[in-house]
Amino acid sequence: MIHPKARARLRSALAAAGAMALFGLVAPSPLLAQEGAAAVQDVTVTDVVLPLGGTLLRAPRLTASGTRLSKEDLAGILRPDSAVPWETRLARLDAGSLTIPVLTSENVGSGDNRQTVTYRDVVARDVRAGRVGELTAAGATVSAVAGPNRGSGTYGAVRATDLDLAALSRLYTVPGDGKGPIQRVYGTIQVSDVTYADARGTTVKIARLSGRELGGRQVPDGWNGAFAILAAGFQDGTDRRVFAAAAADLIEASALGSLEMQGFSVSDTDPKGPALFEIGRAAYASAGADAGTFLDDVSLSRGSLRARVARLALTGTSLAPTIAGLQGIAAEPTSGSGLSDVEMRRLAPNLGNLTVSDLSIELPPDSGTEKLPLRDGRVPTRATGPEPVRPGPGRTPEAKGPDARTPDARASDIRTADPLAVTVSPQPPRRIALREAVLALGPPSNGVPSTSRLRLTGLSMPADLLAGAPIVGMLPAYGYRNLDLDVVADASLDEKARDLSLREISVTGRDIGSVRLEGTLGGIGPELFSGTLPAATMLMFSGSAKTLDLTVENAGLFERFLAAQSKDLSLKPDELRKEYVTASLLGVPVILGNSAAAKGIGAAMGQFVMKPGKLAVRAKAKEPFGIGFIDLGAARSPAAVLDRLDVEAKAN
Fold it and tell me: pLDDT tens digits for 168-227?
């Protein structure tokens, strides 16, 4: 469903694009032409008006220079109610240049929304058979004069080359089968110094925007018809098959060689705190060595919060699954409206590989003044800094600066200060950093990627940020102040076998060690990722554990743990180590049922405690279909589970 505001903005965007590209198609209403000859001459027409859907284009004056067209010829080309197709008429449009001092596009949206774009000094050069060698405008102003989306903005210089008005006309107005050749509309386009501010206090700026090789194929409804269907959404009772067909046609028919944006920023004067989002450079290329989408120097600031990403790259993306999903909906025999959550997931594209480089987040520092509880439990109601310098015992009004005061005077300052105030030095900002993150996703099936791999390299953060988390929340107690971690999560889903393979789930910490988990879970299908409660509930009954490999490698954590526990228990580290060895060799087997597998696990743990290095435990279900999750949850004791597993444990 497309919101009415979004529809108005879409129509406005189309109107703005049409204003620059179709200015040569404007029709006189009325048309006051001056007489001309058949020879090369300048022909001027005035009061040009062209209604274009909800958009009205106006040109008070249009001059064709260096043309052999007579006023009747030019009037015939521009007449919108002519029976001659636009393509045929445009083939006759020839001029050294077309000049429009002022071109205005007025768009009337829903409710009170009204947008006006005024272009200055529009010039088309080398116009031959409906093709424009170069199109320029000195700039433009944008104004939304009424309604909730009111705002204003400006464009700087605009320049386009190799503009094919005939191709543009065919794409927008002439139906096709969507399978014809790509028709190039323009070779290049550049827009500079774009600024727009709305009534909510949001300002958008773009220093430079450029694109290459924009074109497309003709679609069954024509681009005008397809855009109208999408803009209407489902609010007007549009058949979802029609909507899906139009969306698939436009996505598949559009072609863009490359697009680059520099100096993009969005600032917001939110009462909760001003925010600024910036992108130094954003680029997209459809083919070649630079194919993909890249964002460089991305930053976000709000108050004392700062975040920055050096580069974000998305490669290998494909909209083929989205197009196939839309075409499937369009081919359904029955009509309907709207798209279900399941259908929306099936429209997910293949995202390919996402790489984030050099991420840093600076968290707000602690306040410089704190209110600390008093001995009787009361909390101070106010806190202040030191009292300002004032005359007093041992101090004269002429004395200036702290060095001019006597020790008695400084002591007087302390006594006269608010006794409830406790001033502490501001803490330096805490920082979270990530050297690189790589997310690779395989082709989706019903919206679920067949494979996924996430790798985080060089993740650093203050250890106290993990306070309260299981296991890792205890790291500050073992002397860790900052953490440096590497994380890997690699999995694949076999939809036919309904197996989820955990190829690697690992966390590695500098001066800590690593934990690595591998395994296979059965009874897992795409419905697990639907996010619905019934699917999660059914997983408990259908899911099973087939294999599980756990590897723990020590790189300093165990020694710190042992030292901390020794201090708490008032024991020497060697004495406590011996107790843990005894507990591993004797206690663990008893807890696990005293089977051969339990004794093997206890022996391996004892060896690890004696010489902390590497501990590996491998478990495999004896049944081909694994042990059901419901059985694991209902097991009366660990021994009941171990009896159904083949277990191998070893240390170092």
Answer: 888 888 899 888 899 999 999 999 999 999 888 899 999 999 999 999 999 998 888 888
Residue 230 has phi, psi (to 5 degrees) of -65, -40
CA distances from 381 to 378, 386, 471, 556 (A): 9, 16, 38, 46
In three-state secondary structure terms, 52 is strand
Measure Cα distances from 49 to 55, 82, 651 in Å. 11, 15, 85
Half-sphere exposure of 407 (CA within 13 A, CB side): 0
Tell me, letter by letter, the H, E, C secondary structure of 59-119. EEEEEEEEECCCHHHHHHHHCCCCCCCHHHHHCCCCEEEEEEEEEEEEEECCCCCEEEEEE
Please answer whether residues 504 and 456 qualify as being in contact, where contact means their C-beta atoms are separated by less than 8 angstroms.
Answer: no
Please state the three-class secondary structure of 506-557 as a single string: EEEECCCEEEEEEEEEECCCHHHHHCCHHHHHHHHHHCEEEEEEEEEEECCH
Whether the upstream peptide bond of residue 30 has omega within 30° of 0, thus cis, is yes
**Could you tell me which residues are beta bridge partners of residue 197?**
152, 203
Residue 568 DSSP label = H
Give residue-wise pLDDT tens across range 393-452: 444 444 444 444 444 444 444 444 555 555 555 566 689 999 999 999 998 887 888 899
What is the C-alpha to C-alpha distance for residues 622 and 645, in angstroms, rounded to an integer? Answer: 5
Question: What 3-state class would DSSP assign to 558?
Answer: helix
Distance from C-alpha of 229 to C-alpha of 236, rounded to nearest angstrom: 10
Burial class (CB in 10 A: 0-12, 13-18, 19+), 126: middle
| Buried b or exposed e, range 18-49, using 16+ CB within 10 angstroms | bbbbbbbbbbbeebebeebeeeebebbbeebb
Distance CA 237, CA 554 (A): 63
Alpha carbons 137 and 143: distance in angstroms, whole number: 18
Distance CA 120, CA 101 (A): 6
Mean pLDDT for the chain overall = 82
Q: What percent of the chain shows pLDDT beyond 70?
A: 80
Output the pLDDT for position 467. 83
Q: What is the pTM of this model?
A: 0.78
Q: Residue for token digits 């429009």?
A: 100
